[in-house]
């Protein structure tokens, strides 16, 4: 059992700790995950970036911070949002990422009018691709040179969750 809670300063130290614990897993795929990641970065994200979307912290059954999931890059005119997620290294392999994505999709369907939630994953990020597939995302194909990570372009596997409303 897990719980999604809105991103909040209450868990800032836990976020910082989890990023550093998980840097080896995150750094190849997420531009912000770097050795210089600091509490200033956490506070900037919580104060300036997180409010631009719907960002949640993932807590395990014991109430421990284990990762984040959220909707960002919102495009309300087309009712589209990007869906992103990560789970700290010590909590991997327990199905928490899949459960968090499933919970966020259900939340989005009940609390927003987004018709399309996109998951954009570097082709080589097999763990994240598995999460999207296990959570029921529809695989749409590969977008060439879609992601710029550490100064290098990567092809991205494109997945989506759609509400099915008025899809032609």
From TrEMBL:
| Record-level GO cellular component terms | cytoplasm
Q: Does the keyword GTP-binding apply?
A: no
Indicate the segments forming the N-acetyltransferase domain, all copies.
Answer: 17-155
Q: Report the domain of life of the source organism.
A: Bacteria
Pfam families found in the cross-reference section:
Acetyltransf_3
What UniProt keywords apply to this chain's record, in alphabetical order? Transferase
* One example GO MF annotation: protein N-terminal-serine acetyltransferase activity
Q: Which Gene3D superfamilies match?
A: 3.40.630.30
InterPro entries the record matches: Acyl_CoA_acyltransferase, GNAT_dom, Ribosomal_N-acetyltransferase
Under PANTHER family, the record lists:
ACETYLTRANSFERASE (PTHR43441:SF10), RIBOSOMAL-PROTEIN-SERINE ACETYLTRANSFERASE (PTHR43441)
What name does UniProt use for this protein? Answer: Acetyltransferase
């Amino acid at each position: 059992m897990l719980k999604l809670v809105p991103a909040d300063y209450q868990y800032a130290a836990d976020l910082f700790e989890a990023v550093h614990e998980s840097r080896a897993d995150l750094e190849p795929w997420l531009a912000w995950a770097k050795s210089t990641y600091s509490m200033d970065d956490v506070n900037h994200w919580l104060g300036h970036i997180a409010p631009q979307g719907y960002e949640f912290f993932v807590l395990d059954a014991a109430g421990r911070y284990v990762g984040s999931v959220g909707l960002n890059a919102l495009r309300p005119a087309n009712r589209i949002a990007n869906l992103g997620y990560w789970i700290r290294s010590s909590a991997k392999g327990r199905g928490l990422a899949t459960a968090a994505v499933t919970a966020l999709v259900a939340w989005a369907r009940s609390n927003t009018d987004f018709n399309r939630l996109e998951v954009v994953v570097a082709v080589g990020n097999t763990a994240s691709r598995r999460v999207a597939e296990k959570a029921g995302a529809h695989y749409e194909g590969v977008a060439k040179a879609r992601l710029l990570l550490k100064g290098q372009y990567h092809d991205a596997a494109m997945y989506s969750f759609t509400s099915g409303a008025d899809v032609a």
